[in-house]
């Protein structure tokens, strides 16, 4: 009863606040005045002085995609994030922007935490009507305000300056007429509503809109557009922008994909002529004789690639030769992209701006022109290719006895897929038939290749064991893959990607090469080396996770990365229920983890901060994928200079750091685009092939909903109690464990079914497509039903 009174009280306060705000806005309009909504930005002088005095903080703004009124900045001390409450406090900054913020007085640090969902509050037609009218007011920002009655202290701040606008300022969304018919605004502007609720609504000129929009706006209700924000004044809740392009129907793959790419600033335009002129013009191209003489000739060695079956940009190859003393000569051979991408050229400049290839479900947006990434640089079979090699003499246990770095030339003898290599690993004593493999070079036998794969696998197993014994951590999360119709490109099926021993084989030697190169370039260029570090987990989130595990009776050791890996793998058995619990817990353990980042060694004073938390190594970099990562191209140039087979890097230290930061930004954007592409295809798959049934495991319990990990598809969904045919639901804390009891409505003369939802409960769910494009819901199946 007390809880209901509390809900009503907060809801009443919520409505009073917005009705009051609404009336104030109307009054200001009537008076002909307009107050500033946002604070004016500080001057650059004030910002510089405030940062020096420690009165201001700076960092990349992160806006919660599910609760757009919540935003965060990383704390300078690495502890709990700094909280920014509301759109007004964000002061027109967008997600990803580098901002400067002032810390609010400590008495304002109380932050309410909510377990009550909005849908339990707005439950009458009158309320819904009022909320809709408020939401449509062009001078009002509505932020969902929730309160569970519990508060805790968290540092809060207010944005006072935008140092760097990292967000693209592009948005996908829909257009509609303004509601204030007859008003001056409605004569000039239409309203653009972004799909991403973290972005403001935007005034766009009516003249930008399609012909016929004013007469028949309903015809464009489901048309997806691209808009770019051009301004956002202090006195307006809404930004101003210009309509860039009509993409097509919402929910269709190509329009949605183009919208995702544009919104995240991915350059998918054709390569300009000045860039193409940097490529070899006399085709077919062959390696100049003078270049061959400078390199170690490995063309007669048994060297091969192992990649996904559909891969076309093959940038790494492996070799393994048994020596007379019982040791092995193992080589990692990487495409020598830096030979073709000359520093300072137009090609170099564009590659540095793109910074990474972007992998969508249905295609790749390449960093380099396809002539390079799919032909001249790709280590295609039975073709001479320029490479950069790391070659070790090592024992079967993986102990390195000798190491060589240098430019080389190879001729891959076969293009293996992970499945091909896996079949060799799985059948060590069987003879592989030629028809089971792609074409093999006549200079090498299938048995020779098979034995090399087996030897590499044996060494990789030892390397992997040693890595984890030394304290490495790996958190494997479920990854969804798709099969596409060859004609339509639509998803025909989907499955959880199986990470095989052949994947682990390649991973071990790529990691070994990256670590070796990191040490090499840092020794020679202690101030200019481009490395990759992984900061430790966020302390507050890790402490919360530790507390959760204690409550659940899970004995995980969070003292360091190796201890976490060991305890996570020892915690559970191998039965289906244990595997599901491990997937959920792995997902939870991933949340406090920070992103690994590129950096220039001269930009960080403390060498201890170079450390890579997950790998638990002091130095690490990226060397093995220069076709798709520009950071690797810079590392290749540094390595060439360090061994005297290339010029000194022209970039000064500050320019290396700036490029590193740009690579970080594009890596983050690429990762998000890849995730959104998978979400898009899965939504289409649910619509075309659903409803889909699957077992799911409960990850979190709220008092009117609960979160599940759908095990068959690896997606997370929230299930709402008010969407289920229940007599009632009851939330309680059993000890410190949240628990939700559902009482299902009976069928015919049956008794009501009681179901208890706890964390790690296995349930059956149905995924159903909504009427809204790209939306689908998870519905809990009633126990005992087919």
Describe this structure in words.
The protein has 786 residues and is α+β, with helices and mostly antiparallel strands. Helices cover 31% and strands 26% of the residues. The strands form ten sheets. Strands 14-21-20-17-16-15-22 form a seven-stranded mixed sheet. A five-stranded mixed barrel has the order 9-10-11-13-12. A five-stranded antiparallel sheet has the order 29-28-27-33-34. The relative contact order is 0.08. It is globular, with a radius of gyration of 29 Å. It folds into four domains: 2-263, OB fold (Dihydrolipoamide Acetyltransferase, E2P); 273-535 and 596-679, no CATH class; 539-590, no CATH class; 690-780, OB fold (Dihydrolipoamide Acetyltransferase, E2P). It starts with a helix and ends in a 6-residue tail after the last strand. The longest helix has 37 residues, at 653-689. Keywords: Cell cycle, Cell division, Cytoplasm, Exonuclease, Hydrolase, Magnesium, Manganese, Metal-binding, Mitosis, Nuclease, RNA-binding.
Features:
3'-5'-RNA exonuclease activity; five-stranded mixed β-barrel; alpha+beta; disordered N terminus; single chain; magnesium; OB fold (Dihydrolipoamide Acetyltransferase, E2P); globular; 34 strands; cell division; seven-stranded mixed sheet; 4 domains; 786 residues
């Amino acid at each position: 009863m007390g809880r209901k009174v509390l809900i009503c009280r907060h809801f009443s306060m919520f409505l009073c606040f917005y009705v009051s705000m609404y009336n104030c806005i109307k009054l200001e309009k009537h008076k002909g005045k307009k107050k500033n909504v946002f604070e004016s930005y500080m001057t650059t002088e004030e910002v510089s002085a405030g940062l020096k005095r420690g009165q201001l903080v700076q960092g990349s703004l992160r806006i919660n995609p599910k609760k757009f009124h919540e935003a965060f900045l990383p704390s300078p001390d690495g502890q709990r994030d700094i909280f920014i409450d509301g759109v007004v406090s964000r002061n027109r900054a967008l997600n990803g922007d580098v901002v400067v913020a002032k810390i609010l007085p400590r008495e304002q640090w109380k932050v309410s935490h909510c377990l009550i969902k909005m849908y339990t509050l707005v439950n009458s037609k009158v309320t819904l009507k009022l909320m809709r009218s408020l939401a449509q007011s062009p001078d009002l920002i509505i932020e969902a305000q929730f309160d569970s009655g519990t508060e805790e202290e968290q540092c809060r701040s207010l944005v006072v300056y935008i140092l760097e606008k990292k967000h693209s300022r592009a948005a996908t969304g829909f257009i509609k007429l303004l509601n204030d018919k007859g008003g001056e605004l409605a004569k000039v502007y239409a309203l653009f509503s972004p799909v991403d609720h973290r972005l403001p609504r935007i005034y766009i000129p009516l003249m930008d809109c399609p012909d016929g929009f004013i007469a028949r706006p309903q015809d464009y209700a489901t048309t997806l557009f691209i808009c770019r924000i051009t301004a956002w004044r202090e006195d307006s809740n809404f930004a101003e922008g210009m309509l860039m392009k009509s993409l097509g129907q919402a929910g269709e793959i190509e329009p949605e994909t183009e919208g995702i790419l544009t919104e995240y600033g991915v350059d998918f335009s054709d390569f300009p002529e000045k860039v193409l002129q940097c490529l070899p013009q006399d085709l077919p191209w062959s390696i100049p004789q003078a270049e061959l003489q400078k390199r170690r000739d490995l063309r007669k060695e048994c060297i091969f690639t192992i990649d996904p079956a559909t891969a076309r940009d093959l940038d790494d190859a492996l070799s393994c030769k048994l020596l007379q003393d019982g040791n092995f000569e193992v080589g990692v051979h990487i495409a020598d992209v830096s030979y073709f991408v000359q520093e300072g050229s137009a090609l170099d400049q564009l590659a540095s701006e793109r910074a990474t290839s972007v992998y969508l479900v249905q295609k790749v947006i390449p960093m380099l022109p396809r002539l390079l990434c799919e032909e001249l640089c790709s280590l295609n079979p039975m073709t001479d290719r320029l490479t950069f090699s790391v070659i070790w003499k090592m024992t079967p246990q993986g102990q390195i006895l000798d190491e060589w770095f240098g430019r080389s030339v190879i001729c891959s003898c076969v293009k293996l897929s992970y499945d091909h290599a896996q079949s060799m690993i799985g059948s060590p004593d069987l003879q592989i038939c030629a028809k089971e493999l792609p074409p093999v070079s006549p200079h090498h036998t299938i048995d020779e290749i098979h034995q090399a794969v087996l030897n590499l696998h044996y060494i990789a197993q030892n390397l992997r064991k040693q890595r984890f014994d030394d304290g490495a951590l790996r958190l494997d999360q479920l990854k969804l893959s798709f099969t596409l119709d060859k004609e339509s490109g639509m998803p025909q099926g989907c499955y959880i990607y199986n990470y095989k021993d052949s994947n682990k084989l390649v991973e071990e030697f790529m990691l070994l090469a990256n670590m070796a190169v990191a040490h090499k370039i840092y020794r020679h260029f202690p101030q200019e080396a481009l490395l990759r570090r992984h900061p430790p987990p966020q302390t507050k989130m890790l402490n919360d996770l530790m507390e959760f595990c204690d409550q659940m009776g899970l004995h995980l050791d969070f003292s360091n990365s190796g201890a976490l890996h060991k305890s996570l793998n020892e915690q559970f058995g191998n039965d289906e229920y244990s595997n599901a619990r491990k997937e959920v817990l792995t997902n939870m353990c991933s949340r406090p983890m920070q992103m690994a980042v590129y950096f220039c060694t001269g930009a960080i004073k403390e060498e201890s901060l170079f450390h890579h938390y997950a790998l638990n190594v002091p130095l690490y970099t990226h060397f093995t994928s220069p076709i798709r990562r520009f950071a690797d191209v810079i590392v290749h140039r540094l390595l060439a200079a360090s061994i005297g087979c290339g010029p000194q890097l022209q970039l000064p230290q500050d320019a290396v750091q700036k490029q590193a930061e740009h690579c970080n930004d594009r890596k983050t954007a690429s990762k998000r685009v890849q995730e959104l592409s998978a979400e898009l295809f899965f939504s289409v798959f649910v619509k075309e092939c659903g409803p889909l049934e699957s077992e799911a495991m409960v990850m979190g319990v709220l008092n009117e909903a609960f979160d599940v990990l759908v095990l068959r598809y690896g997606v997370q969904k929230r299930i709402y109690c008010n969407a289920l045919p229940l007599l009632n639901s009851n939330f309680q804390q059993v000890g410190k464990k949240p628990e939700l009891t559902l009482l299902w409505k009976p069928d015919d003369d049956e008794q009501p079914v009681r179901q208890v939802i706890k964390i790690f409960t296995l349930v059956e769910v149905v995924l159903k497509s909504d009427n809204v494009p790209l939306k689908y819901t998870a519905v809990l199946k009633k126990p005992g039903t087919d």
